[in-house]
Amino acid sequence: PTLPPTVLPDQEDKTLAFIRLNALYALACIEVEYKREYLLCFNMLGVYVLNTGHRSRKQELMWSSPPNKVAYTAPYLLSYCQHCVDVYDVRTTEWVQTLPLQTLSGSPFNFLGTLSICMVEGQNFSLTLEGC
Question: Measuring CA to CA, which residue among 3, 6, 59, 58 is closest to residue 29?
Answer without folding.
Answer: 6
